[in-house]
Amino acid sequence: MIRVAICDDHQIVRAGFKQIFSEVADIEVVAEASTGREALDIARNKLCDVMLLDISMPDQSGIDTLRTIKQGQPELPILILSGYPAQQYAVNLFKMGANGYLNKEYDTDELIKAVRTAATGRRYVSAEVGEILAQGFDQDVTAALHTELSDREFQVFLRLAKGESVSDIALVLSLSVKTISTYRARVMEKMHLHSNSDLTYYALKNNLLD
């Protein structure tokens, strides 16, 4: 039996997942979370075999939650759920250790297949995500600038784009102000941008912000 945790801040979404899995013989929903911190507790207590994690969570984003879990429980398979098109986030989240990226307009059969694949420790790559990843081998295709960032740089980039200060980010991520400033400088250099306003404009233009 595959034990699944559903981490989404919308109760109706969690209920929908539970209904789907209630009809699947080898999958059982054993835990739910409506915040990022609750998701961390589930991971730390090893309550599930696969976690479904919404990218937009209150108190702590799914991106921050994913990175924290992968630091402490790297073996836990995590499937990211998102309302954003795959090309905006998938590459970066796979870099951060996600086992799959599913748009919330998922097909039920695909969802079940993704959970079963992740439960074996493998990554589930949908046709849409596979095409995006394959573009990385096509020299004629220019990847979006944010996909060239490391997982930590991407994490810092999103927070800067939302208007958070370097000191605030340092506090939340438990890093020094100097370290965050260094990440900011790397982000600016890699993305050929010059200010936080440029980062915000880029993020809005590419639909990376809620």
Give an overview in words:
The chain has 210 residues and is α/β, with parallel strands linked by helices. It has two domains: 2-136, Response regulator (Rossmann fold), CATH 3.40.50.2300; 145-205, Orthogonal Bundle (Arc Repressor Mutant, subunit A). It has ten helices and five strands. Strands 2-1-3-4-5 form a five-stranded parallel sheet, with helices on both faces. α4 (86-95) links the parallel β4 and β5 (100-103). α4 (86-95) crosses α6 (127-134) and α8 packs across α9 (177-191). It starts with a strand and ends in a 5-residue tail after the last helix. The relative contact order is 0.11.
CATH class bucket of the largest domain:
Alpha Beta
| Span between termini | 35 Å
* Count of individual domains: 2
Helix content estimate: 40-55%
| Secondary structure tally, helices | 10
State mean pLDDT (0 to 100 scale): 88
Structural class by helix and strand composition? alpha/beta
Radius of gyration over all CA atoms, rounded: 17 Å
Which SSEs are present, and which pair or pack?
Layout: E1 2-7, H1 11-22, E2 27-33, H2 36-44, E3 50-54, H3 62-72, E4 78-82, H4 86-95, E5 100-103, H5 108-119, H6 127-134, H7 151-161, H8 166-173, H9 177-191, H10 196-205
Parallel strand pairs: 1-2, 1-3, 3-4, 4-5
Helix pairs in contact: 2-3, 4-6, 7-9, 7-10, 8-9
